[in-house]
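>> received
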Amino acid sequence: MVMTEKSIKDKKLILEGIPASPGLAEGRAKVVFSALEALEKISDGDILITPMTDPDYVIAMMKSAGVITNFGGILCHAAIVSRELGKPCIVGTKVATEVIKEGERILMDGTTGKIYLLEESRP
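>> returned
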């Protein structure tokens, strides 16, 4: 489904951060706290949610549809690598790993820094 400005407005806004790499991505949230965990959990099209990234995260970032972090700014690792990969990225949310639950289907807008809930996680 192609998201339009109107269809995005119908979604539940759950969090905002700093827009670090433009674009829209929709997928299942994978909340991880280490690069090893990211490599084990991330599948193609998932959205990577983590406190911050470093070079060990790059393979997981390549597989992901987009990246959301708690910390960082437009010059942090997650932002720079996401721009190089052409993937949406939102940084500096402060609480993404606490607010977004594992398995939730979310829509992220890397142009505005807004994150929307599409479907809650299944128990």
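>> The domain at 11-119 is CATH 3.50.30.10 (Glucose Oxidase; domain 1).
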